[in-house]
Amino acid sequence: MSAGMEGAVALEGVTKRYGAETVVAGVSLAIPPGEFFTLLGPSGSGKTTTLSMLAGFVMADEGRVMLGGQDMTQVPPRGRGLGMVFQNYAIFPHLDVAENVAFPLTVRRAPKAEIAARVAEALEMVKLTGFERRYARQLSGGQQQRVALARAIVGHPRIVLMDEPLGALDKNLRYHMQVEIKEISRRLGTTVIYVTHDQEEALTMSDRIAIMERGRIAQMGPPRDVYEKPETAFVAAFLGEANLLPARRDGDAVAGPGGTRLLAGSGALAAPQGLLFVRPEKVAIAPAGGRTEGANSLPGQVRHASFLGNVVRYQVEVAEGATVLCDAANGAGTPLHAPGDAVRLSWRAEDSRLLAA
Ligand code: ADP
Ligand code: MG
What we know:
The protein is elongated and about 75 Å long. A hairpin with a 5-residue loop joins β17 and β18. A six-stranded mixed beta sheet has the order 6-7-8-3-9-10, with helices on both faces.
């Protein structure tokens, strides 16, 4: 093993079939040591199967699994030296907290003194010092999740796999645990391969995200890139609210609803005809005849205004009955537009792209 490669992870053309169905189709990715990497996608897109091939629970039909620069394709799970947290990988009910956390070290027959020191350290990291003698039934959901996290990191693995670890927690606790996981992995320099179907969770936590669609990686990149520069309508819609307006290519511009000439960002005119993408928060709204922002502008009429507190979300009807969503920050002195109001929407060319339909 070459020095510095210990935390590296790679999949090379990995494929898994069940009967006639290919559930992971030639997935390749390379993750440098210390990266927080997320597999994001809808249910059934192949996230768990991909993670299970990394763990060794599922054998790939084709391709290679590389861990720490070594070919581990044929190595069973316990030879891979990984930490793991799974959604339904509950903590053992017949063991107390300290015994649960110690488990990976006990199995390895580590010396007693070392086990005690590592367990104390791991419990401190997840803020459960003092809970050593409790059992699962005496812990809240969030505390059980922290025990599972302590168990995953107690052996100081260079690579930790997590499959929807926060799925069962309520929103506040989830946010708290997201911060905790991020912080601990950064402190230990651990490579994390994280699976979630929650786009916000993926955007907050990850260095890079791979969006999976039917067993393939649809797009991969840093959160901001995949959010702002989606390459397909699927990626655009999966990562949040997206306007996808019927449009066709017209020279170096785009003909949008009503034939209005619009400009799209560079490198974003891949298709002759398709969908013009722009996020609702990039669309400015002003009274008809008011100020516009950027090269693109469309007249419309407010159909619906939802007051969300910090944001007002408008549904605006434009030509050809198309609807554009526009999120306006509820800042100081921001005027509200009412249903029926004539308005003008505008956005910058670089905030929109023409995607294949
Ligand atoms: P995800 O984690 O993204 O929800 P999975 O990897 O669990 O997706 O599943 C991907 C696809 O593979 C699904 O269609 C699922 O039904 C199928 N699948 C997963 N495991 C098996 C199995 N052991 N036998 C047959 N089909 C499976
Ligand atoms: Mg899954």
